[in-house]
Amino acid sequence: MTLRHAAAALVAGLSLFATDQAAADEVVVQRDKSFSQEQVVVSAGEQVVFSNRDTVTHNLFSRSPGFEFEVKAQLPGQDTPVRFERPGVAEVRCAIHPYMRLRVVVEEKGIQEKGIEEKGGEP
Amino acid sequence: MSRGTVRIALLALAPLLVASVIGAAARPASEAQSDLAALKAKYRRPASVPHPPDNAPTEARVRLGRSLFFDPRLSGSGVMSCGTCHNPGLSWTDGLERGVGHGMKTLARRTPTILNVAWAEALFWDGRADTLEEQALGPISSGDEMNMPLEVLVPRLRAIGEYAALFEAAYPGEGVTEQTIAKAIASFERTVVSERAPFDAWIEGDESAIDAEAKAGFVLFNEKARCASCHSGWRFTDDSFHDIGVAGEDRGRGAVLKDIEVAQFAFKTPTLRNVDRRAPYMHDGSEKTLEDVIALYDLGGRARRPSLSAEIVPLELTERESRQLVAFMRTLTSDDAPVAIPSLPR
Known about the structure:
The complex is a heterodimer of chains A (123) and B (346).
Chain A: H1 2-9, E1 14-16, E2 26-31, E3 34-35, E4 39-43, E5 46-52, E6 58-62, E7 69-74, E8 79-84, E9 88-93, E10 101-107, H2 111-120
Parallel strand pairs in A: 2-5, 4-10
Antiparallel strand pairs in A: 1-8, 2-3, 5-8, 6-7, 6-9, 9-10
Chain B: H1 3-26, H2 29-34, H3 36-41, H4 59-69, H5 82-85, H6 132-141, H7 150-158, H8 161-170, H9 178-189, H10 198-203, H11 212-222, E1 241-242, E2 267-268, H12 290-299, H13 319-330
Antiparallel strand pairs in B: 1-2
Helix pairs in contact in B: 4-8, 4-9, 6-9, 11-13, 12-13
């Protein structure tokens, strides 16, 4: 079942279960049928680890253009890394619990430095 | 991604799965009993009824909404109101396996109750409406249900003289519009709240409010029978969607979230408040009694599909445990006051 889930979730801009990257992961916890935060910010190429610390099974999916993916059934106790490869905003939802919504803001690599430079040009 | 990576993921998962199985088996009944107080606290009734910031339920709005809800002129035939199917005498549903719409057409799904919908998220059996305001106009305009195009409804209500004052009092200066019709009906629906049941008295400390069988049923409901995985909180629903193994071709939420496997054949978890007043059960009326419903869950569902919820597993309930679960559910029924149907505007 896990093999099928992983295969289905492999789409453009995203990858699951990739473990060879050194980038720091952002962790989002699912507990009491809610995400631990409303928004998470990562740099392109970084992972968000979804950590199901709930007593029930969850689902994760996004229909945001360029970020489409689905983690079909994420069992209690399961940690699921999802890598966000390109800049943009992904709205991540749970198909089982409709009020569970998370915004993943994916910034360009090094955007913070670039942002400071651009700000310097403002009056 | 390589197959090797997947294998590592599988290996990493295995101890978790084993741990959860052992944990479930080793948990003694006494420990569950000691958690009872904490468990009961999760089911306390809320102090107030929620509403959207732009539609506070004033008396005038509720009064208008009540008239609209019970007015058959909101249907194409002129004989069906919202209250025809959502009949307060039948716990705000119709007692039928599936609803009957325009021209006596039998609909695909059972009429859901509107009891406690003020708190509901994602309305309709398939969750296709985000708000009560959005939901309210759906059955009115559906050709299969009330068959009243909204562009026909608005002038029809404008032509009923006494409605003008009701709309003006409810939404000053806004007139008769699709929006004010929807907001008024939603405001009335937010007043449809189940009253205190014996279960509530027990939660608040009256040990004599429910009997020992029902109390045992409550523990089963939360533990062995796993009902509270979805039927949680004071309304006994978490507004989630699951394929629970009811046979049939209706894909439910799967038609809204196409290609999402867990949404296929998934339907909204209904409230269990006053549930013994609302037979038959499930989205299609396929289970006749509460005992039949328990039997469905005990089996782990009748239809086994890839979309079947991971929460649905054979329960191995004894006959006595099944009876205790039903005894518990019957304590959720309140003796609600009769509902006044207003004299309608002419």
